[in-house]
Amino acid sequence: MAHSDEGFTQYVSSLISSNGFSEAFQLFESEVYRIGFEGVLYTYIPSALIDMQFPVKPVYEVSKNYAPEYLSHYSEARFERYDPLIKAVKSGESKPINWWGELCKQHINNSSASAEVITVSQEYGINNGLTIPLLSGRRGIAGVSFITGEKSGFDRLLQDKLEELELYSNIFHRVVAADQQFSSRFSLPLLKNLSHTELQLLKGLADGQSMAEVSTAINRSLKYLEQVMLSLRRKISGVEEGMPPGINRNQLLYYAGLLNILEDQNLPSPVKRRKPN
Asked: What's the predicted TM-score (pTM) here?
């Protein structure tokens, strides 16, 4: 590893003591530039988003010069639904993925939509791309992507710096995953449209309380709360009013647990249970 042990120790210490996710990302971003890449993108995608075919867009944290025009195109075209890199990480790939390498081609798998995700990036000046998988499991997936615009020297850069890049990326991800305030920002798309009553109901049920107990605690009828539950299931699964929801009640509570929705919202429990004698 080219960077000094002292420099690495300082990086880890600064990440751990950082005041918020943005500061931690800026530290990581600086190391990416030092290593030799021009732009970096990090994301954690909760399993609920993937399983339900992305009813809302994932959250990405990007450096200022990470091809903003391409990101805009990516978002508008909803490329996350076809992205071969997301497919690769979801399938459990753990090795770094060169966007124009054989591993990426395997996950394009003759899909014109998946191929477009990669080919369009070149139209915006991205001549080299690399994705490092960081997580694939029941909670979701995470990865970090790096780009350069130069047409030559990329193979040499990887040869000299890949090991260091992987180390710094994994340390950053572990700090993010270990801090609930950091990681919760990536769950927000699923939560932004929920009302206070919907969050209260979800918290009560996930805490093991019955609909009747929640009904009493928040002074709402059972019939009303059943309609709230139906609305919740529609919102989380991304379907319109009047359409059947894409998930059942148990799935909703399961995803809420994976997203740490209760802790993230800092809501008090609707019902205070008595301690056993």
From this structure: 0.83
